[in-house]
Amino acid sequence: SRRRHTRYPLVTGVQTCALPISNPKIVTGTYPDPNGYVTSVPGSIYFDLTTPSAPVQWVKTTGSGNTGWI
Questions:
Q1: For the segment 26-65, what is each residue's pLDDT rounded down to a tens digit?
Q2: Is residue 31 within 8 Å of residue 37, measured between CB atoms?
Q3: Given strand 56-59, what is the order of strands in its sheet?
Q4: Are 43 and 63 in contact (CB under 8 A)?
Q5: What is the three-state SS of the chain?
Q6: Is 28 in contact with 44 (CB distance < 8 Å)?
């Protein structure tokens, strides 16, 4: 077999987008409204398990403290 030579080296593992600085988390608890109680980072998901048969999902949109949940 003949080895092919190219002008450019093969590049693997190129990062094409920015990685998040913080790690979003999945949080559970029994607070009907996590604002004021649950601290997490944007992108996190909180499941209110006050009624386990019908959990309510909240998503952290802004801030780094215990506000910004919708």
A1: 888 999 899 988 888 888 999 999 888 888 999 998 887 7
A2: yes
A3: 26-29, 45-48, 56-59
A4: no
A5: CCCCCCCCCCCCCCCCCCCCCCCCCEEEECCCCCCCCCCCCCCCEEEECCCCCCCEEEEECCCCCCCCEC
A6: no
Report the DSSP beta bridge partners of residue 29. 48
55, 47 Cβ separation under 8 angstroms: yes
Instruction: Give this prediction's pTM.
Output: 0.62
Collect all residues with Cβ–Cβ distance below 8 Å to 47 and sequence separation of at least 6: 26, 27, 28, 29, 55, 56, 57, 58
